[in-house]
Amino acid sequence: MSNLCNAIQHNHLPIYAGDRLAASKGFGSSSKTKSKRKRTGPALQEGNPEWVPVAMVSEFKDGKDTLPKILRDNSAIVLYQVGSEIYCSDANSTAFKFPLIDANIIERDGGPAVEVPLDGTVYDLESGKVLEWCPRNNPVRFLLGALKEKSQPKDLRVYPARVNGEGKIFVKFAPE
């Protein structure tokens, strides 16, 4: 069980760790469920243990639509800005554990999705469902796809994310 799950079970939820990316041990795992940026009232106060403040919307800079965050327990997430919506997922893909920091956000009919730069796997950002598993559409991906040919696709863990009136992003790690 991941450190994050242990923290949740023992009511020691991770808190915003600022920009301490250099101090991290890498990118870790997280949870599942829908994630949308919604402005709400009292539920997103600092003292609410279900919603953890992780970042500010203003941290998305230089046209980047992904924002990696290391949590206090050294697990990691990636936040995605798609228009006025914020989504959140584990920091690594499920096929080859490749970091999603530079993932491509794709607009699809069913909503936004994220494509892993290395192996081309595509995940739905709202549900985490695999939409395309290790496509063989270039020489590198052909090789990687062959390695995962007999593997079952594994969904990406996603989390609900919301933004309060001051632009602070909160994420809910506990299951709903």
TrEMBL record:
Entry-linked InterPro entries: Rieske-like_NirD (IPR012748), Rieske_2Fe-2S_sf (IPR036922)
Keywords, ordered alphabetically: Nitrate assimilation, Oxidoreductase
The organism's place on the tree of life at top rank: Eukaryota
Span list, region Disordered: 26-45
Short name of any one Pfam family annotated for the protein: Rieske_2
Entry keyword annotation includes Oxidoreductase: yes
Domain Rieske-like [2Fe-2S]: 50-171
This protein's name: Rieske-like [2Fe-2S] domain-containing protein
The species this protein was found in: Coccomyxa subellipsoidea
